[in-house]
Amino acid sequence: xxxxxxxxxxxxxxxxxxxxxxxxxxxxxxxxxxxxxxxxxxxxxxxxxxxxxxxxxxxxxxxxxxxxxxxxxxxxxxxxxxxxxxxxxxxxxxxxxxxxxxxxxxxxxxxxxxxxxxxxxxxxxxxxxxxxxxxxxxxxxxxxxxxxxxxxxxxxxxxxxxxxxxxxxxxxxxxxxxxxxxxxxxxxxxxxxxxxxxxxxxxxxxxxxxxxxxxxxxxxxxxxxxxxxxxxxxxxxxxxxxxxxxxxxxxxxxxxxxxxxxxxxxxxxxxxxxxxxxxxxxxxxxxxxxxxxxxxxxxxxxxxxxxxxxxxxxxxxxxxxxxxxxxxxxxxxxxxxxxxxxxxxxxxxxxxxxxxxxxxxxxxxxxxxxxxxxxxxxxxxxxxxxxxxxxxxxxxxxxxxxxxxxxxxxxxxxxxxxxxx
Amino acid sequence: xxxxxxxxxxxxxxxxxxxxxxxxxxxxxxxxxxxxxxxxxxxxxxxxxxxxxxxxxxxxxxxxxxxxxxxxxxxxxxxxxxxxxxxxxxxxxxxxxxxxxxxxxxxxxxxxxxxxxxxxxxxxxxxxxxxxxxxxxxxxxxxxxxxxxxxxxxxxxxxxxxxxxxxxxxxxxxxxxxxxxxxxxxxxxxxxxxxxxxxxxxxxxxxxxxxxxxxxxxxxxxxxxxxxxxxxxxxxxxxxxxxxxxxxxxxxxxxxxxxxxxxxxxxxxxxxxxxxxxxxxxxxxxxxxxxx
Lengths: 421, 292
Fold this sequence. Notes:
Chain A has helices at about 1-5, 15-35, 55-75, 95-105, 120-130, 145, 160-175, 190-210, 225-235, 245-260, 270-280, 300-310, 315-335, 340-350, and strands at about 40-50, 85-90, 110-115, 135-140, 155, 185-190, 210-220, 240-245, 265, 285-290, 365, 370, 375-380, 395. Chain A is of the alpha/beta class. Chain A starts with a helix and ends in a 26-residue tail after the last strand. Chain B has helices at about 5-35, 40-85, 95-115, 140-165, 165-175, 175-180, 190-210, 220-235, 240-260, 265-280, and strands at about 130-135, 135-140. Chain B has a two-stranded antiparallel ribbon with strand order 1-2. Chain B is globular, with a radius of gyration of 19 Å. Classes of the chains: A alpha/beta, B mainly alpha. The interface of A and B includes residues 52, 219, 233 and 251 of A.
């Protein structure tokens, strides 16, 4: 009788009940983190960054950096007596990034979002953050546009803008007489970041008398650069300028070396991982750098030591960005005594100084939220001076120099489309 | 027409680059034509070949890596064939597709866990660095060597399939497995060998491409689409189709970069579209009942 009325119960055996409850248990485990996170004695922070695809290797370093920062803060007793609960996910692409940001804010009640590398995804997250009025401290998006026309009261930039990178490397190129009256050949990653960098590069070339007449757009999924290299060889430029990103840089440098071209190489965007991936035998050129683990300041050395101990290898510059983002957020909460979004935004805007693990302290500009801090240039280290496999890069002096204003390498207010007040 | 020498240079470079496409597509095509499995994990085996090579090179140099790494990858292939692939030879192709899709993700993640996500350095062995100059044209020795290896792999595979009794059994098995069984020949070990060979070729491609492209966990995902484009243009089940398609893809991409660089990757898909419009089964595709 029972079974006939309720066909779903037919064949209900001890075995299927066991199977069913195992399934429920499995589901409960998956759902559990959300339940645990519902407690209010933690400060929940969202972290989004690409962990797959051509920016994935950098994202992995970002995750290591932010995880270490959260662990250090919690080991020291947390912020305002509350532990940091880090929610780290793969942002994958702009649409996924925006969906996840929405969910982190709406469902998981994060008080802020950190991270991101892709400028396109960063823009998507900033739109959610702006709408929901939650701070977003971005650690890896270089496009000027994010600080210019797309700037946002709730978005802050630890990552340097393309202008800062180009000015940093441009200074080095000038010293080698590779700017005025020289022809540049550009290779540009064909997506938001690359196009933005190309524009900044063009402006720099125009202002300083270099000729960037030839530029090729390179699809982000290109792995073989040989036809591009043949075009460079034909053009015989004075300098080859890379506006490439992520794994593209590694592939390009390796193949450039393979074809044995000797036109000097320079780039507007750079990550240490790309150089490590190319290896000391293939790495060449002059590149800008926002941070490097050989920096000889007390806080930089402490971070490098802690990171190396935790993860078994030195921090990459992307790890610096995400580590710093978490530390700055925690400091802002501690100094304002609250996790209130507008309080944090106001504090970051106030010109408060932060230890950015460099020679000088940094601060956010109030009107475009860009972190003002020193940049560097980087080039291959002579083989006989390399201490280990990670020690293949030679860090130049800070740009701007010691006596100069930190803002001298950044976009001026007059040139910017942003005006946050 | 002073453009001409440069166009010619791109075409010849495209022929050299076709070795790159051929190496990754050959094993894929082999496993498909004989096992009927669309191996979406092919790129993951390619990545595995590169990572094994990084480890082996430290102790045995590039030569050691070139020999050992594909063998190790083939052994992984044998293990997977015995436990998983063989269940799907005669079932709905979609099942094999799902299996290998999952396998690709598992292998990629395993690589991340073991070696980390950051790219690993791997250089062109010193004895083969340098370039050959022909007139004003330039060809790196390493790529010429790759072309030679690809040619060897094609010849070897063709001889194996067409000139040995092993190859005859394989071909008979593809056409009529029941008849082969009636004759008292067990197909199981033969299919294992075929899959191991196909996966070993992916591993070989991994070793050969590691010095000129980044060694990172997603490297398999990066090339798998190109490999499929080559197989589809050539035609499913066709041996020579893959060879001709690899040449076409290499040359077309080089020319696209010469004329419209931003469309470089799109050009190979356009080529595929064009070929499929004119010849729905690819250039030399055979009619395969189970897919129609």
